[in-house]
Known about the structure:
The protein is mainly alpha-helical. It has 3 helices and no strands.
Amino acid sequence: xxxxxxxxxxxxxxxxxxxxxxxxxxxxxxxxxxxxxxxxxxxxxxxxxxxxxxxxxxxxxxxxxxxxx
Length: 69
């Protein structure tokens, strides 16, 4: 899955979208951000989280905006 994410970011970059970081670094940053959401939801199920779908969508938005220049 990680290799596919790197390839996706490379193809996005080749299509003309400038990334703030090399594709492999951008993939690591995305992976870590998303992993953090998953870990928090799993490790703290009793916490009154915002709706799961909203948290996931928000993190996807943050990591995407964070790696695109």
